[in-house]
Amino acid sequence: MSHPWSSSTAGELFAAVVAEHVRRTEQRVPAALSDEPDGVHRLRTAVRRLRTVLTVYRPVFGKREADALRDRLTVLGDLLGEVRDLEVRIADVDAVGAGARVSVEARRHLVDDLTRRHDAAHRRLVEWLNGPEMADLTAALVRWVADPPRGPKADDPARKVARRRLDKAVAKALRTAEDVDLERLSTASGDELEDLSAAAHRLRKAGRRVSHAARAVTRKPTRALGGTARELGAAGQRVQSTLGDHRDAFQLAAHVTAVADAVADDGGDRGPYDRLARAAARRGAEHLDTAREAVERLREVASGR
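RESULT FIELD:
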């Protein structure tokens, strides 16, 4: 059975893709404003998915127009990311700390500071969402839904463009993977650790692009591809999530170590904090093991096309 978009142009398909992503983004703003559980995370994900569509499928829209809208979304994404990263760190302090039998007092010391920072970041987010910047972004999104700009690939067959652009995102992810020694990352230090961490971060973002680009064209109501495209998306998502979990653990260990230094300077006991930092580092190493498997799975699916 043919896909509903089998006879459509890329302009028609991706106009529908953008409209669907804009709808989901707008739906998630109220929960982020009120700081409901996962509200910020869900809005951040929606913004990221729209940004990915504008990046991977940019020739359908035109470079200048797509880049301009993506830049607007990046500002919002950065604000959401600050809040979300603190949410994750607070949850990780409790989860990792409890598993490492870190005292409640030490965990509370960490969580109280992180919570103050989270609340301040959320206030900045609310101010932005209620301000002129969000009004301008909303107006731009409305214009895109009503009359999306047309780029050089807009009149090409929808499925052909979707497949080729997704393949290009996968190829970029695999090239990025060649620059990352994930096994070495678990034992590196100093400048080498910084360089490898930056490379792993690029690979994580490349995996996310594959995941989001595939999702945009393999799920209703804009499903134009299936089969292998869904497998590529799942593999990309696994690369993203495992490296994201590693990054969270790595950053938690660095943060807790800095707190331990400050506690020791004030004459306090740094022992509980060092124990939590070591537990976070072990968790990060475990995530690297699964990340290597995720990269191999992406290679396997791509090579079987």
